Amino acid sequence: MFNRRDKARNEISTLVGSGTRIVGDVDFAGGLHLDGQVYGNIRGVEGAEAILTVGPEGVVEGSVEVDQVLLDGTVRGDVVASDRVELGAASRVIGNVVYRVIEMASGAEVNGSLIHHDPAQPQDEGD
């Protein structure tokens, strides 16, 4: 598990350290590694192949919307990944997780719904 983690770490362009607290939304491109706290939403710039890595001490109090999420910390809000979600053993999500591909380690916690989204599949309009 987490075989893409080394690749993601090599592509980190922004680091939020453990003593850092951000109040407000964060929009980013490339790789963002979070060991601190964000009180706001985190969004990857559309078309930028955004990768969010949340370390064990990292906390997001808001929603996350990126291409890939590698989570070892806590998100209190919905997680929407257009590509992949990897939940480590210490990860906690208090909200829904929308994903195309998901990996979960034993001990990962999701207090919400797991919602598979495949853009290749047509959405039912309801009859």
Stretches with pLDDT under 50, minimum 5 residues = 5-9
Structural class: mainly beta
Number of strands: 16
Strand content: over 45%
Instruction: Output the number of helix runs.
Output: 1
- Report the major sheet: 10 strands, parallel
What this model shows, in words?
There is one protein chain. This protein has one helix spanning 5-10, and strands spanning 12-16, 21-23, 26-28, 31-34, 37-39, 42-44, 51-54, 59-60, 64-71, 74-75, 79-87, 92-93, 97-99, 101-104, 109-110, 114-116. It is globular, with a radius of gyration of 14 Å. Strands 1, 3, 4, 6, 7, 9, 11, 13, 14 and 16 form a 10-stranded parallel beta sheet that branches. The chain has a 6-stranded parallel beta sheet with strand order 2-5-8-10-12-15, with no helix packed on it. The longest helix has 6 residues, at 5-10. The chain has one domain (5-113). It is 5% helix and 47% strand. By secondary structure, it is mainly beta. It contains 1 helix and 16 strands.
